[in-house]
Design goal:
With 366 residues, the chain is α/β, with parallel strands linked by helices. It has one domain: Aldolase class I (TIM Barrel), CATH 3.20.20. It contains 14 helices and twelve strands. β8, α10 and β9 form a beta-alpha-beta unit. α4 runs parallel beside α13. Belongs to the FMN-dependent alpha-hydroxy acid dehydrogenase family. Keywords: Flavoprotein, FMN, Oxidoreductase.
Length: 366
């Protein structure tokens, strides 16, 4: 099978193809960050300023990319990040993306705001993690955890950096709202504020403001840890002190994340936050990272900075928009090819060896 995505030789090609296909307001919803988008840009700047020092004479003929992430076997040190409303870009939405993740052998994270249910996505046979937003209705939180467990999810990823949604000016200018055909499949059916378009505002932000509980605190994390048998992954950590406390409360892993630049504008880029978090908790918990990952070289960079693996976000939506399942498969294939070559060129026989590489931060970083 071939498709438009086969013309892409890197993820930037897929971004351009997707941009030409998507309605402008959907493109902005995916691409945009909060405020002036300083942190959105800084995620890329910090990665580009991170240089890896390769090792020579390693005698390496082939590099192994297989690893384990939160007790989940993964063909690459990657997981698909939780992303809402994937039917915005393709009718099959999360089902297509999860099928591609299953074929590539990487975990797929189901969002609380998924446009397909976790039960439906479980039918793809992908290795699933479930991402949990903290909702005002504690009964719904309890129900979602039980559904994730029953559907066979192998980890629970609780996002802690969205007490309120960041002010995303592209969405505000567009008066962005979901089309009636796209619903938050895990929340109550029927009309939702996310569909109520109004000038000078984001209906999606209005909806999350109603549904999400901004008072999420450490006691809630402790409560959650006591009520699930799944490994707990805390996503949205930048300060090593927070990472330590998460692990002390029983987290198996943390994700160094600024929500792809979509929350606090001016927050530290993840490549700069990562080494200090690894230093603080890397001996006792896994440390994953997201934010601006766009190539196999980027994956090598974060491995060298100490991460166990990376979450890949927006590029999955580009592939999905261009070619559905086949497009997402193309994204993951390109990342795998690029990572294998990057490992070989860096003198690494496997993913673990990449964590022993030395990095250098460009002093020109603003």
């Amino acid at each position: 099978m071939t498709g438009h995505s086969d013309r892409a030789v890197d993820l930037a090609d897929l971004e351009r193809l997707a941009a030409a296909l998507l309605p402008a307001e959907v493109r902005d919803f995916i691409a945009g960050g909060s405020g002036t988008e300083r942190t959105l840009a800084a995620n890329r700047t910090a990665l580009d300023a991170t240089y890896v020092v390769p090792r020579m004479l390693a005698g390496v003929e082939a590099a192994a990319t297989r690893t384990s992430l939160v007790d989940t076997v993964a063909a690459l040190p990657l997981a698909v990040a939780p992303m809402a409303y994937q039917r915005l870009v393709h009718p099959d939405g999360e089902l297509a993306a999860a099928r591609a993740a299953a074929a590539a052998g990487v975990p797929f994270t189901v969002s609380t705001l998924s446009s397909r249910t976790v039960e439906d996505i479980a039918g793809t046979d992908a290795a699933l993690w479930f991402q949990l937003y903290w909702l005002r209705d504690r009964g719904v939180v309890t129900e979602l955890v039980a559904r994730a467990e029953a559907a066979g999810c192998s980890a629970l990823v609780v996002t802690v950096d969205v007490p309120v949604m960041g002010r995303r000016l592209r969405d505000v200018r567009n008066g962005f709202a979901l089309p009636s055909s796209v619903q938050a499949a895990h929340l109550a059916p029927g009309p939702s504020g996310a569909h109520d378009r109004r000038a000078g505002g984001s209906a999606v932000a209005d909806h999350t403001g109603t549904a999400f509980d901004p008072t999420l605190g450490w006691h809630d994390l402790e409560w959650l840890r006591a009520r699930t048998r799944l490994p707990l992954v805390v996503k949205g950590v930048l300060d090593p002190r927070d990472a330590v406390r998460c692990v002390d409360l029983g987290a198996a892993a943390v994700v160094v994340s600024n929500h792809g630049g979509r929350q606090l504008d001016g927050a530290l880029p993840t490549a700069l936050a990562l080494p200090r978090v690894v230093e603080a908790v890397g001996a006792t918990a896994e440390v994953l990272v997201d934010g601006g990952i766009r190539s196999g070289v980027d994956v090598l960079r974060v491995l060298a900075l100490g991460a166990s693996g990376a979450l890949i976000g927006r590029p999955i939506l580009w592939g999905l928009a261009v070619d559905g399942e086949h497009g997402v498969a193309r994204v993951l294939r390109l990342l795998g090819v690029e990572l294998e070559q990057a490992l070989l060129l860096a003198g690494c026989v496997d993913v673990a060896a990449a964590r022993d590489l030395t990095t250098h931060l460009d002093s020109c970083l603003p």
